[in-house]
Amino acid sequence: xxxxxxxAPCQVAGRFGLLxxxxxxxxxxFQRAVRALAARHPRLADLAASFPALxxxxxxxxARLDPARAIACVIDGAALAEVAALADLPVWLRKLPxxxxxxxxxxxxxxxxxxxxxxxxxxxxxxLAPTWLQLVADAAELAHEPMAAWVAREFLREPRPVATxxxxxxxxxxxxxxxxxxxxxxxxxxxxTPDLRIDAARSATNxxxxxxxxxxxxxxxxxxxxxxxxxxxxGYEFMPLDSIAAIAAEAKAMRNCLRSxxxxxxxxxxxxxxxxxxGERVATLKIACRARDPLPNIVELKGxxxxxxxxxxxxxxxxxxxxxxxSQIDMRQYDWATAPLDRTSWLSLWRxxxxxxxxxxxxxxxxxxxxxxxxx
Length: 376
Known about the structure:
Strand order of the largest sheet: 1-2-3-4-5
Number of helices: 18
Strand content: 5-15%
Helix content: 40-55%
Number of strands: 5
């Protein structure tokens, strides 16, 4: 009688072939380190099939992580969960393929709820896995575990929009969404929630950044020199939009983009006014230089929703403007990007984040920085 069981040499060859195919799948830059560790003991080599992330983490440890004890435990036959804990590696990484690891594995979230959530959002494509893993790690570090789970889900739904999004900014917005006692939270119109899709999140984040920039540019004190004086003409009241509160109220009531004017106002390029009648807002004015004319002009005059206004409104605005001695108005402008940001607002905005994260990252420095604000 002959047996259908493979002979011992065939079993060894088959096992060797499987491990070799797995080892080949690691990134070429780390092949030597991974293979060197796998060659030290069969149980280490077996990790290439049973727990590719663990083999990689032990061969290419992150900074300040000594893998010696974990390696010894693998050789002694310890349970994989025990070894993973020594390597500070979540067990949920066990299902990721070797292609996922293209740099030392960073710290990753591993809360009980996160483990249940992430099981539904693991990448099936080896090509997507490295970007997915880095985005999850970044979101956890920049915001929190719920944000990391959200990023994992959204990246699998729409990889390109998530990969090209301004993740730092979205994570800041998401973090402040859960911090009600902060200025950053107060400036949010639409907070982050786990059910949002990436497009809605990007839109809400951009709105928040616009208001953040307005505060950083103008600060809490009103604009002292509005160039012109409040007054009344032909039944219309001309009211200065000289503070963040006034600008925000006008923008909301008139459904326009005034909140984006912080940069322009800080560089002394324009002034904003509200035109009202019987307590009702009629139009919003932008006063600035036109072309090479050094004197103030009405460069924009729009009704609610940026609709055109009547000749009557234009005529009243012209009469009010020319009531002033325009030759005496000082309209000296700052060169672009040279007006300082408001330090008090900058510190009020970001201090809660620095304290919570116990660090002041280079991308969000303690000194007010236009470069950092633009890079968010």
